[in-house]
Amino acid sequence: MATPALQAKELGNKAYKAKKFDEAIKHYDEAIALDPTDITFYNNKGAVFFEKEDYAAVIEVCQKAVEVGRQQNSNFKHIAKAYSRVGKAYSKQDNTEKALYFYDKAIAEHRDSTILHERSEVMRKIKRKGTTSIYRPRKIKRGEGERK
Fold this sequence. Notes:
This protein is an all-alpha fold. It is about 70% helix and about 0% strand. It contains 7 helices and no strands.
């Protein structure tokens, strides 16, 4: 028998599939209120906001998902999914630098082919725009920073 939180999540899933997004959010909020330690409730809510094109809400909810996931030692795939959604939201906002940063964080959690593909799409977008400000770790030259 499913817990009340899981029942609320299932109702949210049904509403999401039926594209009843406001109803889905209500059910996911109920699931979160009943069990605030389950990362999937936050991830699902983030997916709804993504469909509604409310990218600021996606970023907020999915960053909360990462926080909850870290506290609960959640599966790294769920944390990667949350980071990936943040990257996707930034990409939709045309903030390619932040999108790339969060895709890299997602890949560090779980090297998933879908996330790798989404990251490469952001790189293509950057190249098309001719953006030079790409998030990239700085390369250290040989001998730099060594004590003399």
